[in-house]
Specification:
By secondary structure, this protein is α+β, with helices and mostly antiparallel strands. It has nine helices and twelve strands. A five-stranded mixed beta sheet has the order 3-2-1-5-8, covered by helices on one side. A five-stranded mixed beta sheet has the order 4-10-9-6-7. A hairpin with a 5-residue loop joins strand 2 and strand 3. The protein starts with a helix and ends in a 7-residue tail after the last helix. The protein binds heme C (HEC) and copper (II) ion (CU).
Length: 352
Amino acid sequence: MGLSPVLWQFLVHWLHASALFPAEASGIAPYVDALYFFLVAMTIFGTTFVAILLLVFSVRYRREKNPVATQIEGSTLLEATWTIIPLAIFLVTFVWGALLYFRIYDPPTNAMNIYIVGKQWMWKAEHPGGQHEINALHVPTGKPIQLTMISQDVFHSFSIPDFRIKREVIPGRYSTVWFEATQVGTYHLFCTQYCGTQHSGMIGEVTVMTPGDYKKWLEQSNSGQSLAQNGERLFASMGCNSCHNGTAAARGPSLAGVYGSKLTLTDGRQILVDDAYLRNAILNPSEHVTAGFAPIMPTYQGQISEDGLIDLVEFIKNMQSNYRVQQTLVTATSGEAAPTTPSEGTTETVKP
Ligand code: HEC
Ligand SMILES: [Cu+2]
């Protein structure tokens, strides 16, 4: 198209200024928009091209001027042209879209993780430090943020138009999306999947702050317990540590350092341990049995809320060192009755 870059920039600028178009407030936004404008330009080009041809042909070859039609028996050159040009356009769109897709769905390894739980009809955000917020999300600028999301009931969809992100939030399975906020400000957060009577109220506000302000916010909203600490309590109160206590005699495998590692299962498969795997291991233990262990872990299906599962997952993720060390640490800080040390409690000798 004949649009010069200057005119192009002016158009994009005007669209943003006129509030007809959402702000570009994330690192990915300009890239998504570039593809979007390319598609719009191609569509305009195609439409005008066909419309012009239609007009020209109907005037030029109208019956008064051409009483007898000339037959053209085919033209390989013509056919090749109108096959190859659209094909090239479609392929460019496809490759461009695929590259963008990979970029959007593959979070950088240094991304900071925040959990999102969707339910009828609200969004709950849980920061690793234990800060909870409802229908609100606070994030710093300049840092990749990954959202690990799950629904407690029906399908929802998490969308921040100004960041150009949108991802389904599904019951029973974690889905992730990531972004890097570039501009301080407040932005809308929507559920974009019809999810019942008050779906339209399932909205919220994203507050993007400077890293310094974000740190202050985290300190102010501190609940005193990090997700991992909540998880550690659950781990003890649900009796997980009766089997997973990190001792050699334990009936369950040590979970220290298991996150991010490759587990070998009894059927010989190798599986990467990520958030989804941990969650599933707690709810459906018999589905993937770790090699060298008996399938004795009970299912916790229906006994732990999604929030509780997030706490457990976060605890296991952070369990990098010997678990017994952490256990004594908790007793020292929380002042609770000391849990029986693993060696005392291990009268069971079912180690397979
Ligand atoms: C009765 C003993 C027992 C209890 C109680 C138990 N587990 Fe397990 N768990 C096992 C055994 C044995 C395995 C390995 C076999 C398998 O994969 O099922 C295992 C596997 C796992 C795994 C998969 C990782 C790996 O290295 O295999 C996770 C995660 C896990 N348990 C977490 C938990 C949590 C969280 C709880 C408490 C809510 C819990 N377990 C309670 C025995 C137990
Ligand atoms: Cu919803």
